[in-house]
Design goal:
Blueprint (H helix, E strand, L loop, with lengths): L10 H17 L46 E6 L3 E3 L5 E8 L5 E4 L13 E5 L2 E2 L17 E4 L5 E6 L10 E7 L2 E2 L2 E2 L15 E2 L5 E6 L1
Parallel strand pairs: 2-13
Antiparallel strand pairs: 1-3, 3-8, 4-7, 4-11, 5-6, 5-9, 9-13, 10-12
Length: about 220
C-alpha cells in the first residue's frame, strides 16, 4: 500500500468512507410535513333556517245571494161578539193587513174573503172540538179575479157566519181560531194568475177569540 504523508488518510480509506456516508444520506427519512392547523369547531348549534313568510290570503268577495226577497209580513185578526144569543148567527169578522209600502196580491181561497170553503177554523165548545160540516171544494188553476190587491193602508176585511158550517145550537163557552193560510201571495201584478204548481203559500197566525152562547 502506498504510504501517504502524516495527517492524511490513505486514498482507499477515503473512498470507502465516502460510500458509507452517501448511503447513510440516501437512506435518511425526510422529515414529515407539519400538518396544517385545523379550524376550531364551534360548540354553538347552527342557526335554524328561516321559515318562509306565510302568504297573505286574498280577501274573499261574497257571492251574490240567490235568495228571493222575503214576502211582506201579513197581519191577521178575527173578532166576534163576546156574547151571542142562542139561535143567532156566529158572525166572525176577519181582517188581513200588511205594512209594506208595496202592494201585494193574495189569493182569497179558503179564507173568509171568499166565504166558508173548507175546514179552516177550529171551534171548541167547553173543551170539545166541533166538526166542520160545510162545503169542500176541489180546485183547478185560479183566475185573476180570485186575487185581491192588499195595500199597506187598506186592509182586506170580511164577515163570515160560522154557524153555517159549525154547530152553535148548544149554549156554552166557545173558543174560535182561524187556522187557514194564504194559498198564494204574489208581489208582481203581472204574475197573476199563477198555476197551482207555482203557488207560494203564506201561513197566517191569528189570535183566538172567545164567546159565550146563552139562551
Amino acid at each position: 500500500m502506498k504510504t501517504i504523508g502524516s495527517g492524511q488518510l490513505p486514498f482507499g480509506v477515503l473512498a470507502w468512507f465516502g460510500i458509507v456516508m452517501g448511503t447513510v444520506s440516501c437512506a435518511k427519512t425526510p422529515p414529515e410535513a407539519t400538518p396544517a392547523a385545523e379550524a376550531p369547531v364551534s360548540s354553538a348549534p347552527a342557526p335554524a333556517p328561516a321559515e318562509p313568510a306565510a302568504p297573505v290570503p286574498a280577501t274573499a268577495t261574497p257571492a251574490a245571494s240567490a235568495t228571493a226577497p222575503a214576502s211582506p209580513a201579513l197581519e191577521c185578526s178575527i173578532r166576534i161578539e163576546p156574547k151571542i144569543k142562542l139561535g143567532q148567527s156566529a158572525k166572525v169578522h176577519f181582517r188581513l193587513a200588511q205594512r209594506a209600502a208595496q202592494t201585494v196580491y193574495v189569493l182569497n181561497w179558503r179564507t173568509p174573503l171568499e166565504g166558508l170553503r173548507g175546514d179552516d177554523f177550529s171551534v171548541v165548545r167547553d173543551g170539545t172540538e166541533i166538526p166542520y160540516r160545510g162545503p169542500m171544494m176541489k180546485r183547478g188553476n185560479p183566475s185573476a179575479e180570485s186575487y185581491l190587491a192588499l195595500e199597506a193602508s187598506k186592509p182586506l176585511e170580511a164577515d163570515v157566519n160560522l154557524a153555517l158550517a159549525y154547530d152553535f145550537s148548544k149554549p156554552g163557552h166557545y173558543r174560535i181560531t182561524f187556522r187557514g193560510k194564504i194559498w198564494d201571495l204574489v208581489t208582481q201584478q203581472s204574475e197573476i194568475p199563477r198555476p197551482l204548481d207555482k203557488h207560494q203559500p203564506v201561513q197566517l197566525t191569528c189570535a183566538s177569540v172567545e164567546t159565550d152562547v146563552a139562551p
